[in-house]
Amino acid sequence: MDYDVIVYCHGTKETGLGHFSRCFNIALALKDMGASLAFYGQFDEFAKARIAQSGFVLTSHYSFTSHPVILCDDYNFRQKELKLLHDAGAKLIAIDDFDQYNFDFIKRIVNFRYKAATLCHATNRHLLDLSYFPFHPDLESVRTQNLNNSEKRQKVNTILLFIGAHDRHAVARRLLKALDNLVNAKQIVLVAGKQLKFDCKNNQLKQLSFVDDMAQLYRQADMVISGGGLTKYEAGFCLLPNAAISQTKEQQLDTEILAESKLCYDLGLAPAIEQTELENRLSLFLSDEFKHQFEKQKSAFHIDSTRHLAQKILEVRDE
Question: Which of 156, 157, 171, 259 is close enough to 266 for a disulfide, judged by CB 3.0 to 4.6 Å?
């Protein structure tokens, strides 16, 4: 069967679900705009279930007779592989956080990171900045809720810790230890790949593995602390105060740029920051800094960004 768009990404516990999540959000927008599409790649049962429940096809092969758009999202593609897809007739679009796929045969290069133009060699093929941030449609209601609830912005009862599949530097345990020293009588919700044995003495701890409904977690949260990836963008879109302890140098650079504009609070680079300094930074964020992000978030993120990106993808289809 021929498709307008083939989404080429992976979503497993080994790869993490970040690439799949943002591709899935784009796929929902493309579907609403009438495009036919399929997913191709390696997926665990969680990702397969989301694909099936949303009415998408998971394919193990694809045809080039209709010259489909292939939306590629992974850090480990090789130029040779992508060139073969192009030469076979595909129109390639790459989601590219680090400008590693800036090849002349790529039709569009998507980098929705804040101030992305400062991080790449921009061309007329680039789609840059938060104008193209792909969020799940359920997050729009969370944003509206927080936009209309000024009281919630001043009081923190529930803190969401989202670390993701790969906790390379024991970030979850370090954050739990710091929070339990700094706050009392809060609900702390930890989402991580592995359950931790941790005794919270001053707060209530709830642990979750990957969840199907992130919007519900954001809806319940008053504050988000993440491991440095996509979550800080989703929290910003939802107008939630957020901080990040980055696990890679690339994530740290991104966090620093966001922090300069009060869109995120920088807790440091996990392998480099000492526990005492982490607690000091977290204490500052909890005491006052978290109150300064709302207005910046409100103006930086756009409710039509996912649809805007989907339209650009379909323009390539029609070329």
Answer: 259
Strand order in the sheet with 5-9: 57-58, 37-40, 5-9, 69-73, 91-95, 108-111, 126-128
If we measure between CA atoms, which residue out of 318, 311, 317, 315 comes closest to residue 26? 311
Listed by start position, the domains of the chain span: 5-133+303-317, 139-300
Per-residue confidence (pLDDT) for residue 244, from 0 to 100: 98
d(CA 69, CA 220): 37
Query: Per the CATH hierarchy, to which homologous superfamily does domain 5-133+303-317 belong?
Result: Glycogen Phosphorylase B; (3.40.50.2000)
Q: Is it true that 5-133+303-317 and 139-300 share their CATH fold?
A: yes
Identify each DSSP E strand in the chain by its residue range.
Answer: 5-9, 37-40, 57-58, 69-73, 91-95, 108-111, 126-128, 158-164, 187-192, 204-208, 223-226, 242-246, 265-269
Cβ 69 vs Cβ 313: under 8 Å:
yes
Mean pLDDT taken over the chain? 95
CA distances from 8 to 41, 68, 191 (A): 6, 12, 26
pLDDT at res. 14 = 81
Dist CA 283 CA 17 (whole Å): 30
CB 265 within 8 A of CB 159: no
Rounded Cα gap, residues 99 and 81, in angstroms: 17
3-state helix, strand, coil in the chain (%, to 5): 40, 20, 40
What pLDDT, on a 0 to 100 scale, did the predictor assign at position 186?
98
Q: For residue range 189-223, list pLDDT tens digits in order.
A: 999 888 899 999 999 999 998 788 999 999 999 99
32, two tokens: 């609403």
73 φ/ψ angles, rounded to the nearest 5 degrees: -145, 100
Q: Which residues of the chain have pLDDT under 70?
A: none
8 A C-beta contact, residue 99 and residue 109? yes
Helix (H, G, I), strand (E, B) or coil at 81: helix
